[in-house]
Amino acid sequence: WGEEADSSPSPGPVTVGVIGVRHQGAQIARTLARLPGAQVAALCDVDATQLPGLAREVAGLQTGVLPRTYADFRQLLADPTLQAVAIATPDHWHALLAAHALRAGKEVYLETPVTHTLDEGERLLRLARETGRVVQGALVQRSGPHFVQAIEFLRQGHLGRVHQARAWTVHQRKGIGRGSEGVVPEGLDYDLWLGPAPARPFQANRLHANWRWFWDYGSGELGHWGVPMLDLARWGLGGGLPLQVSASGGKFHFTDDQQTPDTLQVQYQYPQQTITWEHRLWSPHAPEGRSAAVAFEGERGTLLVDRGGWKVLGGVTGVGQPTGDLLAQYLGAFVETVRTRGTPVVTLEECVMSSALCHLGCLAYRLGRSVNVDLQTGRPRNDPSAERLLTSTYRAPWQWPA
Q: How far apart are alpha carbons 127 and 306 in whole angstroms?
């Protein structure tokens, strides 16, 4: 696995296995099945009830080829006919699953954030370099034509000097209620769902879409919408890691079991610019009428961009509309990268860096103070008290593959 990968294009469709198929993973499987250069050859989920129906649906989308189904990802990774895997599990599994996939010789499409902690980013980068395999994080805006057009407009200097980028998501989410210990549903391998996370009794409102509101499995809204929006802001400004990160907010609205903040503001300080993040999960009024967007503030105007298009507010004229299916375009680019052994739309280094913005913002919030960043290491500078929140401790028997 440490040898240089074959650079010649692979014949036939790229065979892909999808791991985690309840929500985003099911959409990824459907989209891949429609792509002419791909074949969904396998599906995997710890909840066996999710597999038969989706397998039949995918077979109908790819001219009758029925995907094999697995409840355990290790069986899927042992399949020698699979060239690549798409991972759409809860966040606490992302980097560890990707590592096992790389060790099994697979190319990897990985939902964001690509890591659950900062130290996983360092490990994943080393392993990807060692194996020579592709890891492409799901920053789908990077291949969207109107996003590319907006960033080019910005970099051509039409706004003059740009001093700030604001990223946000504001909408009204529902609470998850108060849960209690319950019986594991039939068909669910709950121990495998927990995987490297701490052991705890089954509680229904911690699973499925709700896992992201618990620190053991996710990073709240900052890990959900924050990563793609902050990546867009960082992409536009051309910046890397910030010098300092500060955060304020809390769980002010919901009275339920959620641990992550429903109200949060984060400031990322760069030498000559700032990026700010805001989320409000209880508000009907979003900035500029956009529920999830980025605004680049320049001396000649403000460029506003989201998945619905882009426009300029102020004295400069500029506008663009979305074209095509973002997910299909991005997955198509991944499949082509695997087929030709080409360069990904976005490197793993970029994906790890944008995920790090999420983790640093969460760190500043949880510590209740600003965090100074060592740009050489990407970690807090001289801050031993932050280390416990930066490092993954995997529950036995799970460990980073040697």
A: 33
* Nearest-angstrom CA–CA distance, 152 and 158: 10
Ramachandran angles phi, psi of 32, nearest 5°: -60, -40
Find all residues with CB under 8 Å of 170, minimum gap 6, and list them. Answer: 278, 279, 280, 283, 285, 286, 287, 291, 292
CA-nearest of 262, 243, 235 to 165 is: 235
Give the HSE-up count for residue 29: Cα atoms under 13 Å, Cβ half-sphere. 33
* Helix (H/G/I), strand (E/B), else coil: 344: coil
User: Chunked in runs of 10, what are the mean pLDDT values of the chain (402 residues)?
Assistant: 44 93 96 96 97 97 94 97 98 98 98 96 96 96 94 95 97 96 97 98 96 97 98 95 97 98 98 97 95 96 95 87 91 96 93 97 95 88 81 94 88
| Number of Cα atoms under 13 Å in the Cβ half of residue 43 | 30
Alpha-carbon span 314 to 303, nearest angstrom: 9
Query: Which residue's structure tokens are 């001219």?
Result: 63
Quote the radius of gyration of the chain (alpha carbons, Å).
Answer: 21
For the entire predicted model, the pTM comes to 0.94
